[in-house]
Specification:
This protein is an alpha+beta fold and 59 residues long. The protein has a single domain, classed as Dodecin subunit-like (2-Layer Sandwich), CATH 3.30.1660. The chain has one helix and three strands.
Length: 59
């Protein structure tokens, strides 16, 4: 029987490079077999963007 494993991580980058760096980060997780369940975003101090994401993988 297959079980799901979950991973919760927070990614942050400066606003200017967030889209490119976050895409690279998500692609790395995907290559490891993780699938995104949900992400929430927020801005910190005007210059940082953060994403907290929940990933799922089949065990």
């Amino acid at each position: 029987m297959m079980h799901n494993k979950y991973l919760f991580e927070t990614f942050s980058s400066d606003q200017m490079s967030f889209d490119q760096e976050f895409t690279k980060y998500l692609n790395e997780r995907r290559r490891e077999g993780w699938k995104v369940k949900d992400c929430s975003y927020r801005h910190e101090g005007g210059s940082q963007t953060m994403a907290s994401c929940l990933f799922k993988i089949k065990d």
